[in-house]
Amino acid sequence: MSDSSQPPSFLDLLHDSTGRALLIDFMRSGYSEHHLLFWEEVTFRYKRSKPHDDQRNPTNVENGCKCNAECKCASNGANHDNPPPSAASPASPSLPLPCRSILARHLYDTYIKNGCPSQINLTEPQRLRLQTAIERIGTKDADGRDHIPPCDLFDESASTCLELIKGNYYLPFQASKQYQTYRQEKEEQETNRDQNKTVKSSSCSIL
Length: 207
Known about the structure:
The protein has eight helices and no strands.
């Protein structure tokens, strides 16, 4: 049997959809859940999105999207101006992702820009660097192609959010009733998994 007494690590918790949802709910009491929502969108949406290129889907171009031919944003009714946060969950892999430029603008307008609805805590130099990067969207690179924001554009700001979450909320969350219930359920699942493995192993030995 594995050592189920060990609590999940901070990153394990963040990559577990149930644990992450509980932490988001816990952070709402401090009006800081947007820091984890930002990390979630960067990790599970932006970094998985595809850059656009010159092989564009004509249907999407007519709807204002510059995605490549593989993108099905327009045909699936995606809102390019305000992509739905629900698509951030890795539990919904079938939902289409807008192209990287659209997501970059969404993240900047929602979490980065001064005075935006869910502004995260960044240094002014961090904010200015992202503003400059966003302003380049729609321009041409030296090779004449449309400028595409890099997939690591928000890595630094996402790491800043994780530091804030771990430093201010993770330990109090571990002491909460929600976390204790979550951990107990995880331990029970691990115990049941180990017992099932033992039963299967015994059955194979008999055969």
